[in-house]
Predict the 3D structure of the following.
Amino acid sequence: MTANILEVTNLSVEFETFGGTVQAVRGVSFAVEAGKTLAIVGESGCGKSVTVQSVMGIIPMPPGKITSGSAKVKGEEILGLTAIEANRYRGVEIGMIFQDPMTSLNPSMTIGNQIAETLVVHRGKSHSEALAMAIKLLDRTHIPEASKRARQYPFEFSGGMLQRAMIAQSLACNPSLLIADEPTTALDVTIQEQILELLTELQRTEGMSILLITHDLAVVARMADQVAVMYAGQIIERGSLDDIFYRSAHPYTLGLKSAMPSNTGRGDKRLQPIPGSPPDLFSPPQGCGYAARCPQAMQICKRKLPVLTEDPGDSGHLSRCWLQHKDAPDVEELYQPLKLKGTSSAH
Amino acid sequence: MLSYITKRLVAGLITVWFIATATFIAMHLVPGDPLMNQKAVSAEIRLNLERKYGLDKPVVEQYFIFLGNMLTGDFGISYTQQNRKVNDIIKDHFPVSATLGILAIFFATLGGILWGAITAVYKNRLPDIIIMFLVILGISVPSFVFAALGQLLLVNLNQLVGQSVLPVAGWGTFSHMLMPSMVLGLSTMALLTRLMRSSMLDVVNEDYIKTAKAKGLSPLRIFFRHQLRNAILPVITVLGPQIAAITTGGFVVELVFAIPGLGRYFVQAVQQLDYTVIMGTTVFYGSFLVLMVILVDIVYGFIDPRVRLQ
């Protein structure tokens, strides 16, 4: 059993809006192991970004409010800290990169100064020392002519280069965890691959853990050791990469997979979209959030929320579905048209 | 950078020529001429005067004479003030207006940025509501009301202390400048406060502020290094025209506080159709405005790196 770098337990987050209270995250628990990658996957609005941003303490409060739960970095509680206290781990223990590198860097500060700033603040370096280290960091993220680039401003960088600079910045204090919030969504596919390659390489050399937020199953398959699937503010399935792709237990995970294009299947296979749309989180349904769209929905699904249960034959593979109940029929039998085992579309 | 400045200066010269021409045409379209303001004179004297001042020549010829003189920096002699060169009027009175204006801009910018930042931090809470109420007052109440109120305040203050702390009117020392420049800068300060407030609120929602938080920077550092600098940009943009507006538009405040500024001559000249003074002051103010706008653009380039290379 490896040590957990980050442990989130039963996290709930709400947003007060004019239309009412949105329950964006509803009791989410997960852990990131040392040196491993956990991918949180889910569609837009499922609460995955809110989850990690709450952990980082960077959701706007108000209107945001963490109503319950805990998050521990190396065993130390980090929720409910003041901004000053939280800065002991933000940027130090946890680095973070964002979806859109074009807007995530300060337009009126040079790249070098922005990276150096972290070192000045957390490591007490002088400005020139920090700048020299910043150039090394840019070098490590494979930015050519790093010392010249460090003097340039964000508008002089391309999107992919900016994301590299963001990564360099987040690595400044050697964090044990890197949170990557949809790091490749705003980039085109070839650049995407380069960034993922860089992250893999850095994880190998630095030994850090990665918490990857994405909606792209291909990225998950490429990067993750552990996967958590989120839907309507809850984790509905959690397990190893193989658990999720080859032994999917939740109908939503199955639905996502059959909606994903594959290059291993025959050309005549049509993608199956999931009909309907996610539930309104102003008043989440009392039963399972997916029940309304689920082809396997039973009577109980609409009335009562299933608990996260572990697959008896598969340790560490949890899912939140009534089909996992001992009296329920087997999921994969019900989902015949997919023929999951062996014909995975993991890549 | 140098070619950029040269380009802007050439464009500025064309603008000034355009201002001069437009003013010249407009001035001659107004019925009457400088001589009509005098007591009724006989036809012969009038003719002589016209000949003396060159007013008998065709307007087009007058225009070219004026342009030629302008190029040598000579705006001629006032029609209504005996033996006073227009250049002397500008030289004597513009420094007064400029000093007043610069002080006013100083108050306005400092106050605008400060109040704007405060209202943004306390958005929709009491300090914000109070300041924004005062801002509406500052924008909508005309400056002569504030000028009078300011004087009243000074009178009461001086009475309370029993001696003259700050002079109520006049010009000369720094203490004379304090109240009029604050009054003059008030509406600009109100305008800048609003601008700064909305710009600060825009910046707060920017992604790079989120990045700064995730980097573990202190709120104070984020505020000064990441938020303020980016929020000031729109404020600086309007500063050029505002500087010109304040230095030229101080007429009313100058009048109330009995300050010998250029504004008074500018307005009087138009009322009396004092051709040379109108042209002199307008072209001078026009060039000043153009220069300020260019200056602000250059300063802007230093603050926003994206502007520099263009």
